[in-house]
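Attaching the record inline, Q. Sequence:
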Amino acid sequence: MSPRSAGRTRCEFAAGARWGLIPSWFKANDPKEWKATTFNARIEEAREKPTFRAAWRYGRCLIPAGGFYEWTGPKGNRRPNFFAPAGNDANLYFAGLFSIWNDIRTCTIMTRAATDAMVGIHNRMPVILNSEEREAWLEGSANLDIGIGTALKTWPVERFGLMDEGSSLIEAAE
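Structure, as predicted:
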């Protein structure tokens, strides 16, 4: 990590992280003792919430993904939809926060109210940054509308289980 202006740091290397942010101030020896659900953080609240406040200031990161799934439909008959970049980028880049707790890097994905790209499928979505917004996020932008214009393409895929894997998981359903 390299120091930045105003005391900010940013991840200058590709690194793995445990999903589910645990704040650096949490006093415990076992990550299972952290009971809060911190897989996602609402962009409109993270700056003020004690769990995310330090990471908002000092722990910005990008989380690359080839796409993501969102499930829709009635309970017991939910169907997955795959979301992918609509442009020329091979990956999506989610705005994220990270924290180092007991020498373990932990992270969370920022979310926002759904935009037109996701309306009708879910009421929230990841904050997805275009190439111009990535540097602004890493530098500490406080713009809560960052990522609002990201274009996505989506299609329904066949249902799958936890242990399933492979390229067939992103093929359009018949």
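The first helix runs from residue 50 to 58. The chain has one domain: 2-170.

More tomorrow.
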